[in-house]
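User:
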Amino acid sequence: MGSILETAGEEPARFNIKLLFPTGNTGTGQPTFTTRKFAGVTRESLKGATVPLGIGGLNLLPAGVAPAELALDEVEFNTPDDVELVDGGTYLVTQSVASNHEQVDTLQCWQDSHIEADQVVGVKHAVAKLRASGHPEAKVLCAKELKTDAGMVEVGGIVIAKGCSSIVENKTKLTAEAAASLVDKIAMIR
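Assistant: Predicted structure:
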């Protein structure tokens, strides 16, 4: 009779699996590790449990050998699909660099979308303010660059109406550098 960890067509479960994640090193240069233990896993459940951790490769350590005793530049890391799983096995983990790069790209896109959203909100406020000031014809100009005698100035948005305009510049955090940038842009526009 099969266990809950073993299903038809799937390799059998392995027990007492230990994963070692490098976390840095001690003051003496010895590597330090975080350990994660699994009482019983199949290859698929191990992959499912470790996907959020960004595992790039696994290496089965010989029984009784500590990771500090290995010459890591000579170790061949296998993908979680290719590594040999054994009962009581201890595995040294590498984490994928590509996933970290993808996370940075995702964070950059998230930040860019928030900046763009803040600019849209700022432009909507400028339209409402001009309309409330007696300019019902106020509308958003699709250009975000102004040409002046001093050169081109990029802004967050431009709202125009008869005889007046409103320039929107969004700063999520007004630092000294951002304030200086605003002063320079206003000087160029004038």
